[in-house]
Amino acid sequence: MIYIDNNATTRVADEVVAAMQPFFTDVYANPSSMYAFALEAKQPLEAARAAVARLVNAAHADEIIFTSCGTESDNAAILGVLAAQPRKNHVVTTAVEHPAVYNLGEELQRRGYKVTYLPVDRGGRIDLAALRATLTDTTALVSMMWANNETGVLFPIAEACAIAHEHGVVFHTDAVQAAGKVPIDVEATGVDLLSLSGHKIHAPKGVGALYVRRGTRTRPLLLGGHQEHGRRAGTENVPYAVALGAAADLAAQHLADEITRVGALRDRLESELLARIPNAHVNGDHAARTPNTTNITFQYVEGEAILLSLSDVGICASSGSACSSGSLEPSHVLRAMGLSHDEAHGAIRFSLSRYNTDAEIDAVIDELPPIIARLRAMSPFTPRELMA
């Protein structure tokens, strides 16, 4: 099997499995208890918190809250800020956010909030002037992703955050697809809240984190006990928090490799496919992208047919967000970028990790062109000159 769908999820690193294993069996105490055995769980929990803080360059480890996933982190950030500012009813986000933010915005509209979805251009880029123009005295929050999950396009987070702060508006970023792929520095960018997810950086599914800058007014999403400094009730999931801490340390160690070696693999895959397959084009800004992601439209064929054919030869890729894969509708991200219905339906996302090899990329380069040729031969929309 060749797995190039790492924006959907990643394999759990062997080092991460080893780090979490003792906390299922030997060190099973509740970290909130007062006896010495509980400290054996509490201390690794706090060490993991510090590791996540280092990954995003948070000034204080207690600014990190462990959550169950990126979606919870996004919801906790947005709903928490709104609950702390009941007199403000306006949220600004983008038209290409992950469903965890995009669909929450739609729900907020049903609850009576005003939500502005900033448009993007053909390259998936945001117009910062449009952001500035939409902010008002009633704006509570700007939520803008650090990197797009479908195209890898990077947003100007520091600049957007500065604009929000000029208007006294809290700034949140969904950094789920950026963590471990590009440098993240919450101190340099000034963001108030940042979400990330473990299973995108080689930790298990079921754990995430939310960075909350000291002094940011927010209310907890989950109420109950005093865990996580009173900001998220519920007994901490120690094995998975430890796993996220281990994955965060590994992500920091391998960041240079992600940018250079994985980036080179992505570039070679992309350039060879474009050279061998006519009427194919990359979706999104070619320069400002995460180094592991390319999204390519193959005209005149359906993405689902491409994916099934790739699966038949043991290659795993995606047609967009894994959270939307059950839908027959074209990607809202690609449609917001101005792609036609047919162009969006013919798009495939390839997302690599540090575990991918040159041999795997060679195999994809060899396998995909004949698949596209065969599917185009069956399509009534394929021009005759491509059938020759």
Give a topology summary.
Blueprint: E1 2-3, H1 14-20, H2 22-25, H3 36-56, E2 64-67, H4 70-84, E3 90-94, H5 99-110, E4 114-118, H6 128-134, E5 139-143, H7 157-166, E6 170-174, H8 186-189, E7 193-197, E8 208-212, H9 238-253, H10 255-276, E9 280-282, E10 293-298, H11 303-312, E11 315-316, H12 332-336, H13 341-345, E12 347-351, H14 358-378, H15 384-387
Parallel strand pairs: 1-11, 3-4, 3-5, 5-6, 6-7
Antiparallel strand pairs: 2-8, 7-8, 9-10, 10-12
Helix pairs in contact: 1-9, 3-9, 10-14, 11-14
Label this structure with key terms.
alpha/beta; 388 residues; single chain; seven-stranded mixed sheet; three-stranded antiparallel sheet; globular
Can you offer a commentary on this structure?
This protein is an alpha/beta fold. It is built from 15 helices and 12 strands. Strands 2-8-7-6-5-3-4 form a 7-stranded mixed beta sheet, with helices on both faces. Strand 3, helix 5 (99-110) and strand 4 form a beta-alpha-beta unit. Helix 1 (14-20) packs antiparallel against helix 9, helix 10 packs parallel to helix 14 and helix 11 packs across helix 14 (358-378). The two termini are 32 Å apart.
